[in-house]
Amino acid sequence: MPPGIPVTPLAIAALVVGALGALFLLGAIIALFRARALGFAMRVLAATALLALGALFGAIAIGTQGYRALTREDLAARIVVQPTGAQRFSATVRFADGREASYELAGDEIYVDAHILKWKPFANMLGLHTAYELDRVAGRYRSIEQERSAVRTVHSLGRERPVDLFGLRQRYKFLAPLLDAEYGAATFVPVTRPAELELRVSTSGLLIREAQPISN
Question: CA 216 to CA 205: how far, in whole Å?
């Protein structure tokens, strides 16, 4: 397996199907040398279908990296917010996987959104279950006029990946047999004082609650 890709039922299926496709392709080459046109054509068709299916499974296995399995309610991150000026504050995000990053934001509230992938039962048998990935953090103004004209601050929380399943599901319907639904979820709360917040995610969406106030 490529580095960083865990051994999951889907990844194993991708390897097995891809290997079968390679065997059929080898058989097609042998049939071609033996001048067996029908055998060559049938093996080429089977190899093409298997290799395409293996590539699809492999792409999904890679595309789901960075997503975390979603149970009833998960702690997605802890966020420490600290006002730094008029409608300005810093936010330090401690992710569930141990990463930490800090952002300078403008606005009255902190806004976070996420991508959530919900898989059909067929995909569940391949080890795919409802999963989420935090997408972005931003400052949000209470005033709509300020939202339109004031300084906007938006930062990405997701990781770059070669396959963006969320984007693909929005563009292509061929993933419908695997993905039952795809949607985004967002939440925001005011930032008026130093505080530590819990960002939680469930199948119904995101929520932020105060975990523990931070002393000045």
Answer: 32
Per-residue pLDDT of 105-131, as tens digits, reads 999 999 999 887 776 665 555 666 677
Give CA torsion, residues 166, 170, 172, 175, to 10 deg. Answer: 50
Residue 151, classed as helix, strand or coil, is coil
pTM: 0.61
Phi first, then psi: give them for residue 160, nearest 5 degrees. -65, 140
CA-based radius of gyration for the chain: 23
Q: Quote the CA–CA distance of 81 and 75 in Å, as a whole number.
A: 17
Consecutive H or E run containing 61? helix 37-63
The residue assigned the tokens 């960083």 is 4
Least confidently predicted of 10-19, 132-141, 206-215: 10-19
Is the CB of residue 47 less than 8 Å from the CB of residue 25? Answer: yes
Rounded Cα–Cα distance for residues 18 and 58 (Å) = 9
User: Which tens digit of pLDDT belongs to each residue from 77-103?
Assistant: 999 999 999 999 999 999 988 899 999
In 10 A of CB 158, how many CB atoms? 15
Q: What is the separation, in whole angstroms, between the first and last Cα of the chain?
A: 49
Q: Which amino acid does the sequence have at 88? A: R
Query: For helices 9-33 and 37-63, what crossing angle results, to 10°?
Result: 160
